[in-house]
Each structure stands twice: as C-alpha cells, then as structure tokens.
Design a protein that fits this description.
Strand content: under 5%
Largest sheet: none
Helix content: 55-70%
Number of helices: 3
Order of helices and strands: HHH
Distance between the termini: 62 Å
Length: 88
C-alpha cells in the first residue's frame, strides 16, 4: 500500500479508537494500520477535491437529513414508510 520511502510518526488515541483502527486494519490490510491510515488519507484527499468541485459549480452541500438517510441506507436500515393522503 505504501510504495517508496516512508516516515515514522506517532498518534495519541484513546483505547476505543485504537482498537477500532486495528480491527479495520485486520479486515482490510492484513493488520497493517499504516496502510489503513494511508488509505484513509487518500480517500479524504478525494473528498476535499469533490467538495471543491461542488463548490466551484454551485452544487449545494447535503443537508443533515439527507446525510442521515444515506447513512441509514448504507447500514441496511429499512426506509420509513411514506404516509399516504386520501384523494379528495
């Protein structure tokens, strides 16, 4: 995941965050936390570029309601049923 020369650094993390990072690294990078962090940094750079594109072309950011709906869909939660109105 990290071709070429690398630099060593350190982070101060709470136990839960470190445990979660290690679990994610085990699932996606054979336990390599550095590779996971490199992937996260790369993905974040793409998000920043996307945000700049949206801003440049006047595309409004998602509302909190839209974000919640998308996250619920990712988690596989059922959509709330729409209430039907009776025809007059």
């Amino acid at each position: 995941m990290r071709p070429g020369r690398t630099k060593t650094t350190s982070f101060s993390l709470d136990k839960k965050t470190l445990r979660n990072l290690k679990a994610l690294a085990a699932r996606h990078h054979k336990g390599n936390v550095s590779a996971l962090l490199a992937e996260i940094a790369s993905r974040e750079a793409k998000f920043v570029a996307a945000e700049a594109y949206f801003e440049k072309y006047g595309i409004p950011p998602l509302s909190e309601e839209s974000i919640s709906r998308i996250e619920a869909e990712w988690r596989g939660e059922p959509r709330p049923k729409k209430t039907r109105r009776r025809a007059a």
